Amino acid sequence: MEERKFTIEELKAVLRACAGEEESVDLDGQILDTEFEDLGYDSLALLEAGGRIEREYGITLGDEALNDAPTPRALLEIVNTRLLGVDAA
Fold it and tell me: Carrier domain location, by residue (predicted)?
């Protein structure tokens, strides 16, 4: 079975679809280690993005996982860890 990876491009698409994009923020730039708050995404936007990721990728993140992910890199790591768990099942 091919290993599924959640990419930064997929995350950007989810963020844009769920909460739009702050005009002053360049999501196409180097954002991996930029805090979500600095990118213009508050906790409500992240909850919506998390719900969409859960539905589209068949995983469970929960509020705690989203709170533990202050940056896109951290969220990618959490999502990809969960995807590995789904693939292993």
Answer: 5-83
Per-residue pLDDT tens for 58-88? 999 988 898 899 999 999 999 999 999 865 5
Are residues 20 and 44 in contact, defined by beta-carbon separation less than 8 angstroms?
no
Average pLDDT over residues 28-49: 89
Domain coordinates of the chain in residue numbers?
8-88
Q: Do you know the residue count of the chain?
A: 89
Q: What Rg, from alpha-carbon coordinates, does the chain have?
A: 13
CATH superfamily of 8-88: ACP-like (1.10.1200.10)
Q: What ranges in the chain are assigned the alpha helix state H?
A: 8-19, 36-39, 43-57, 62-67, 72-88
* pTM for the whole structure: 0.85
